[in-house]
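Figure 2 data, in text form.
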Amino acid sequence: MKRPHGVVVASKNPDKVAEVEAVLAALDPPVTVIPGHSWSDIDETEETLAGNALLKATAVCA
């Protein structure tokens, strides 16, 4: 599987985006983080973090 050049972080929480960015920047070569602040709010209606992550991923890719 090819490694992505960029990862969308569908979060408007700047601390969360910075944490993800720090982890991915340590990779060789680094992976660029694309903050999700330009998208509309996505309601987190699922019962789990994984469920809400899937909702956001689906909305961002639509």
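Caption note: DSSP finds two helices and two strands in the chain.
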